[in-house]
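Tip: read the tokens left to right.
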């Protein structure tokens, strides 16, 4: 009955196109078996030929010019009719054919089609059919169609306004497309049915599309009688299934949301990619509709909560930390192929993978949408789900939940989501802390308390979480934890040096201090040394506000102060090669440069706030965070080695920040502390005083100390247990920490005095 396009080359494209379309409409008039699958008919072939003709026509014409075949498709509402046939799925499988036709049409035709009312309206209706039922045979075609629409919107974001329909409008269009009418098929040969379809200016940007609708149809009228009744076709229209949200203003999003739940992982990932394109569209109306009239935020957070709750109550923190990097689109874990599998690994990867997707989605999203999604994650996941786990009293539960928080802190990359995470952990307070109000934000208070927990594992994990939090690019973190308490510089007792003080410090040197210029190690790395000059010259430029001085005397004094804190009889590093001060210098320079880059946009001052403008009368409290760190530092001789390493690591990270008050409070041994105040230096001085007393009670102290150091470095095999092991390990950590602080002080002073 049907001729193939290839066998009729003499026919003009226009006539050929009409022929193939009429062949399809004739099927519905002449068929007596509407149960036969569409693949048993010639409909797929005719649709493919129509596409080929449209592509050929476009290739033969100048760019942007619409040919008669495309005019025919637009004028005669072919897409509307195909939508209705696809909705009815008559014959069976027709929905797949219609979806494929729409997808190929939008993908293969270069000229913009979506601005046409007779394209975007049926496209919008077809979108509503997608994702109605999961795991259907049409899922693959549905997601391909939705993704090509998303891609077109990404190319021309203003087009998204065609897909933001009001609820009433959606209901009206739904009712009007539930049946195939006689006029619909008759209308393929007459413009009569098109006269009532006006193009609204707000729906049709520019006049480009209007002229397509106004041109007269030059094709001859079909003589065939295409009339038939709905009963003859036995087409029943099933009611629309309820979608995710009551307000279906943004059906493209709702359909994609449904398909993210597909049991087919490939379909779900494609749906996630489509959502990623939509959230990034710059149109504010679309962003508002996305977050207010769809359930996108609920889907993100509910799935996060479900996957988090599916995790085992107890997970090894090391497993949580070391599980391979997660990319949301590559969540294809196979337990059988994994040699390093552990209980709960599948669930952990699924959770981290979905969190990564939420993070990337918020990172790519338009600002309005990003803020709304991030706030939803904070309220519906961080607060509702994670906080109770972090606040519990079970040690196993605390350890697992803190390790998961640590992993999330490390993994988050979106600035907007990071801010919500920071406010969740620390609260939004910025005024100075007082001892009575340190528990104003209960979670912050609990986490800081956990840094000094009876369980060493919990202490270490919480300290590591804070260490990584401090390295995140958000100004509120350091301000909330430390800086807000140093603003007034009321840790200083402002008075000039008396003669007695001057006698203690002779020529800028503590009695017995080494002269750095005569120290061979320091000489090797002094600024006069070519190699040192090269790597030190990369330091950030000095702030124009910062006074320029040579800093030579000052830096010698401070470096000496830290290097000489630990007495010679308690030092062991000079007996072991490769444990010198130079290593810390190089590390400090690299880390300080990284921290300067993080803090660059925070516009910190280059010099401390003038004391005349500070309220020195206000009582000073270092804040809860520093209080706990100083307390733990004060017990360095009585704590496990791993705890000491973590405490000193956090303190050294704090010391690296290029804020003048941090530098003064943590790295300047010569500030006059106000009564009752302590600084990092004063805490270490007390520890050294205690050490001097305790050394006297330990026989063969120096040989034992050296043996412990060699064992820690793997230079000596493990042997019999040594008495006072905790103290000896604490002394080694103390010596190394003092060298690290000296290196940081040197690098920072050099950076501030280098033009």
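Filled-in amino acids:
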């Amino acid at each position: 009955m049907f001729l193939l396009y290839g066998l009729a080359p003499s026919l003009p494209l226009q006539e050929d196109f009409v022929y193939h379309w009429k062949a399809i409409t004739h099927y519905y008039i002449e068929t007596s078996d509407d149960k036969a699958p569409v693949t048993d008919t010639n409909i797929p072939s005719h649709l493919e030929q129509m596409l080929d003709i449209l592509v050929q026509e476009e290739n033969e014409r100048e760019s942007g010019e619409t040919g008669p075949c495309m005019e025919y498709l637009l004028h005669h509402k072919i897409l509307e009719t195909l939508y209705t046939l696809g909705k009815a799925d008559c014959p069976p499988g027709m929905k797949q054919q219609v979806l494929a036709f729409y997808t190929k049409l939008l993908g293969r035709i270069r000229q913009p089609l979506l601005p046409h009312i007779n394209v975007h309206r049926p496209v919008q209706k077809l979108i509503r059919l997608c994702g109605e039922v999961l795991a259907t045979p049409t899922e693959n075609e549905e997601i391909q169609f939705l993704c090509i629409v998303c891609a077109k919107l990404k190319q021309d974001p203003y087009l998204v306004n065609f897909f933001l329909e009001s609820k009433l409008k959606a209901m009206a269009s739904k009712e009007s497309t539930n049946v195939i009418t006689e006029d619909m098929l008759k209308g393929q040969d007459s413009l009569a049915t098109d006269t009532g379809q006006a193009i609204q200016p707000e729906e049709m940007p520019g006049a480009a599309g209007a002229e397509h609708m106004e041109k007269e149809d030059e094709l001859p009228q079909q003589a065939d009688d295409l009339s038939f009744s709905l009963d003859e076709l036995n087409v029943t229209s099933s009611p629309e299934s309820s979608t995710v949200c009551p307000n279906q203003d943004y059906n493209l999003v709702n359909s994609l949301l449904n398909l993210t739940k597909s049991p087919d992982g490939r379909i779900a990932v494609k749906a996630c990619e489509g959502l990623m394109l939509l959230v990034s569209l710059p149109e504010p109306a679309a962003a508002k509709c996305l977050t207010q009239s769809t359930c996108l935020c609920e889907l993100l957070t509910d799935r996060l909560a479900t996957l988090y709750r599916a995790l085992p109550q107890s997970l090894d923190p090391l497993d949580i930390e070391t599980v391979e990097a997660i990319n949301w689109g590559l969540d294809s874990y196979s337990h059988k192929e994994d040699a390093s599998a552990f209980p709960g690994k599948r669930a952990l990867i699924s959770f981290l993978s979905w969190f990564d997707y939420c993070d990337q989605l918020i990172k790519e999203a338009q600002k309005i949408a990003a803020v709304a999604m991030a706030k939803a994650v904070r309220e519906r996941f961080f607060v509702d789900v994670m906080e109770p786990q972090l606040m519990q009293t079970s040690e196993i539960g605390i350890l697992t939940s803190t390790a998961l928080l640590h992993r999330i802190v490390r993994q988050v990359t979106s600035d907007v989501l990071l801010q919500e995470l920071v406010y969740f952990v620390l609260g939004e307070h910025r005024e100075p802390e007082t001892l009575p109000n340190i528990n104003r934000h209960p979670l912050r208070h609990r986490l800081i308390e956990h840094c000094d927990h009876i369980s060493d594992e919990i202490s270490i994990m919480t300290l590591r979480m804070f260490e990584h939090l401090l390295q995140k690019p958000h100004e509120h973190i350091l301000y909330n934890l430390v800086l807000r308490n140093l603003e007034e510089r009321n840790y200083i007792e402002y008075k000039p040096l008396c003669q007695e003080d001057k006698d203690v410090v002779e020529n800028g040197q503590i009695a017995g201090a080494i002269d750095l210029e005569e120290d061979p190690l320091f000489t090797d790395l002094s600024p006069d040394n070519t190699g040192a000059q090269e790597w030190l010259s990369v330091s950030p430029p000095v702030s124009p506000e910062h006074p320029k001085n040579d800093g030579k005397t000052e830096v010698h004094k401070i470096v000496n102060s830290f290097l000489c804190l630990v007495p010679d009889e308690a030092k062991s590093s000079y007996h072991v090669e490769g444990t010198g001060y130079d290593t810390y210098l190089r590390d400090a320079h690299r880390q300080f440069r990284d921290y300067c880059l993080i803090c660059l946009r925070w516009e910190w001052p280059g010099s401390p706030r003038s004391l005349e403008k500070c309220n020195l009368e206000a009582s000073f409290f270092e804040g809860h965070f520093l209080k706990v760190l100083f307390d733990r530092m004060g017990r360095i001789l009585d704590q496990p080695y791993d705890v000491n390493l973590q405490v000193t690591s956090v303190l050294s990270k704090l010391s690296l920040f290029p804020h003048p008050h941090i530098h003064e409070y943590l790295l300047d041994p010569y500030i006059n502390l106000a009564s009752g105040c302590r600084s990092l230096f004063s805490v270490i001085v007390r520890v050294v005083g205690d050490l001097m007393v305790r050394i006297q009670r330990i026989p063969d102290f120096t040989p034992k100390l050296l043996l412990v150091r060699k064992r820690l470095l793997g230079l000596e095999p493990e042997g019999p247990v040594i008495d006072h092991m905790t103290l000896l390990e604490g002394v080694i950590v103390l010596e190394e920490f003092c060298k690290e602080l000296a290196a940081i002080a040197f690098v920072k002073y050099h950076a501030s005095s280098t033009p």
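Confidence is low (pLDDT under 50) at residues 1-10, 168-184, 186-248, 504-551. The CA atoms of residues 255 and 424 lie 32 Å apart.
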